[in-house]
Amino acid sequence: MNVILRGKTEEILNHMVEDGYANSKSEAIRLAIINFGRENFDETEKVNRKLDRLNDEIKTGKSRLLNPKEALGKHAKWPE
Fold it and tell me: What pLDDT is attached to residue 76?
């Protein structure tokens, strides 16, 4: 596969090699893909992002927490 990079992406790739993060441009691209995958597809990261989003919605009033009675409704084991 051949990849042509220009501008900022080429500049970043060159810096990765020059600064010793990677031994070659191919290795730098592999590292970037792995890093992207960890940030976007790692299960723990996805769960944490979702929890952060829910917390933000609660803080801004877009969502609210339910108490156990509200959450279980007619399925509550011990009605009050």
Answer: 74
